[in-house]
Structures
1.
Amino acid sequence: MIEVRGLTKRYRDRSVVDNLSFRVGPGAVTGFLGPNGSGKTTTARVILGLTEPSSGTATIGGRRYRDLRHPLREIGALIDPGGVNPNRTAVEHLRWLAAGSRLHSRRAEEVLGLVGLAGAAGRKVSGFSLGMRQRLGIAAALIGDPPVLVLDEPINGLDPEGICWLRTFTQALAAEGRTVFLSSHLMSEMAMTATELIVIGRGRLIAAESVTAFTERADSSVRVRSPQLDLLEVALAGAATSMWRVDDALEVAGIGIERVGAIARNLGVQLHELSPQRASLEDAFMRLTADASEYLPQPAA
Amino acid sequence: MIDSLAMEWQKLRPLHKTSRMVALAITMAVVVSAIVAAAMASNGAQMSLSDRRGFDSVGTSLQGINAAVLVVAAFGALSVTREYATGMIRTTFLTQPGRLRVLTAKLGIHAAVAGVAAACACLAAFAVGQALLNSAGLSVGWGNSHLAAALGGGVIYLVLVCLWGAALGALLRSSSSAITWLASLLVVAPVIVQILPQHVIDLFGRWLPSQIGQQAISSSPNAHSFSAWIGLTVLAGYVAVTLVAGAWRMARTDP
């Protein structure tokens, strides 16, 4: 369980994270979503004790990272594919992590097997592709068999097969009852991997709910087709918040599908289509973070 | 603390760079000692009896530490700066969140390795130096009463310089600036000081690390220098001040 309370991080006069509070519970993959520059990495770094917050706290199972005696046994982390001396071999890198966590050096070989790098154990990290470095980073996160995992942008640099592997892998870890906190700016991937979401923009919390609730909350609409569409449009105008024509159909927002059906029946109009239009996670995200995006292209003056 | 030490040892162990630096320090010490001793031996014939009596055979054989000192300093500095350069420091702090514990373990392990390397360098340099001086009848052999103090002084000098390097590395976080500072303090400063008027050198020269190192291995005290142990205490003071600043930065500034 990760708990962030009233977290604020200011660099001079700029707030990167602004009074952020959320909880990440066990047994699920929780996505940490936000545009680039929204404060995801800073938040992850504060949780991991690498950045001192201006105010607020971040705890893992009720304790601050710096108070953990052997942190890698409590929380595994991937913050960047770096963090490795490239002159070392993969297994050498993991061995010193094991030594520092008072784990048997055998764990180094075990976790390399878990992430599919057993064959590259004796190779220098300098010869690794970005995808292999990500896998090594995930191996490092798993070395202490921790109940909590924080993975910052883990799919960066992974090939399609690697992305698929990571998805099933993280879901399996969550199914074992672990807390998996996964940050990304790629919504489509998150929609497939995560079941819970923390969404931030400009360092502020935008949403903390399940993926289903999040997509439902984003305005969904109802699509109607009818030979007497003009008549229906006039009748719906009073009830809907907005309407727009798409080819020969009308999309209506802010009104339930049952109401649309009832209004059509009362008017006696014939319907060719009456269907709910569900917004994708991507649409919902874009809509909710539109004004929270830090670096939007500015129109030329 | 044991796991912090184990971690630092495990980091150091597989690196070929470590063994290469240790080998380099020993080689430099032996080669330079050999050159100095050979030069002295060839002059031996022209030396007067009083010159021979006052000749510092032990100190001459240990001149090689002046060459090894920069390697040892760089070894100390790189122990910290290389982690900042590769980003490995973040992984280190994820594994061991106690900044000062990590720094202490790092200093301990590196000082131990530097100590072993320095002892090998001093013994080898002495053996080679004495062999060369023997031809001119200037050797004193292993039974010399001053030998233990000179060897000990040389080793302590090199270990302190290694710690100084690590402290500067923690303070500056950059390999190039840490090594530039160390080269300036250890090698360039003594050269620059030489162009100053003699009475100024007599007054301030004793504070130079190189002068302190020279006294640590010398058996002939110099009126314008600190004695060996006072000099090493002064050097330890430089190390302590730099270390406090380095530890403060390591603990306070995010990696």
2.
Amino acid sequence: MLSPMYLAATSNKPLSDSSHQPASHQESASHQASVQSQNQPPIRVVLAKLGLDGHDRGLKVVARMLRDASMEVIYLGLRQTTESVIAAVEQEDADVIGLSMHNAGHLALAPRILQALRDAGLDVPVVIGGIVPESDIATLTEMGISAVLHPGSSAVEVAEAVRGSLGEQPVGK
Amino acid sequence: MNQLEGRSSTADLLEQAINGKRRAQGQLLTLIERGGFAADEVTELLHHYTQSRAHNSTLAGARCHAAVVGFTGAPGCGKSTLVGCLVAKITQEAGVGRSPAVLAVDPSSPLTGGAILGDRIRMEENVPAARSDGTDRTANAAVGGGAFIRSMATRGHAGGLALAVPAALRLFEACGYGPLIVETAGVGQVEVDVTRTADTTVVIVAPGMGDAVQANKSGLLEVADVLVVNKSDRPGAEDARRDLEHMLDLGHMTGLTGQWRPKVIMTTATEGTGADQVINAVQAHREHLEHAGQLEARREARIHQEVRDRVSQCLETAAEYHLGTKPDPLAAALKERITPAAAAAAISQHLLASDMPA
């Protein structure tokens, strides 16, 4: 069972009226979560690694973090191409793309995926996670990457980065 | 999608979808999954579209339906890999005009509502066609576009499928896809929903499923139209096949197995072995249904089931809403003054006598 604090911390939107009560009862917190997931459709996230990069353990951890933050994860895994990611985003109607990068390809691959999204007429935010030097983060965000997550990011930080990439939209859609 | 509202009306989306725009098809599936008013609008529009098309068309068979094939089995038995394999074959061989569409269902978390939808990863290993170039296709429907795969979470629906499955299948049909493939979430013994959704149900087992007693238990195995022993390169595959054949023999003896005796097919989906036989067996079953005049009966059963599911959902929503207000009988049961059964009876009586919330 997840702790109520976890659910509160990763809940879909700024605490609503009913959740101003301290989340001291596990029951009420999980009830709240289930009510929330009924009222607001889950955020759908496509997770993938591009090209020749076999380090997918981090991506699997992220998939689990997002699942436990009430999101639906379409897990594409290894050896994807920009084309296969775009096709999945179209067919799955994903809200966010999460890319894991551990092969120093981020400065080459990020512009490629952003261009492919523009070409397909898709306005879907991209979050990158993995090994990215601090000095590259500004370059990536300037070109349009929504957020960059580093190893050691907590479950809450990961979920917040995904939600944050959707701007001020009330979560979901 | 975030930008959906206000940008494009549902009717516009449907027009784009029918003209083959995959992005619009994906967005409509989201509306269908979301349920409520938006989903009702999509299904109404779809209904009008198919009705008018059938009415206006002078082509024979304008009302012909796409075949719906269900794949079900225990978690990890190889459903997605096998489906990927079959879709690749169908896509290669279909040539003109037909592209398969797949609805791949995986479970939602009962705790958070989240889900890991991990069917697509298995299918794409076999289906390069699923990697489309993302451009619009203005030609009719799915022509040349390869397979369309949509992952769906159960979102609280039991029985191995999602509530949105029937409407999603109708959308696929209107957009010209076929055959339509439904892959259930991993199931055990009792989840047989898929038989009321599909024309043909393929049940997949893996070696080590149990002995002859297991094979003769009621439930999933007895509703199969085609039986597949996947991972047939593993030890015990022949034993599984023998136990299934014996199970079918006994069904024949007791008269339960009718005119159709399911074939038992050995496959190794990771290598594509046996895929052709599965396709042939599904085809043979469909011909049997047509020949025996059962196709229409199955379609009626499908509509029956959908209506029943929706009635159940309405009642459940009403019950949840009512229970959320902590009615007296519930309070009494919580204090153990009355039994849960008595509380349920009182609440049900009250609910059925009052107007349901929409």
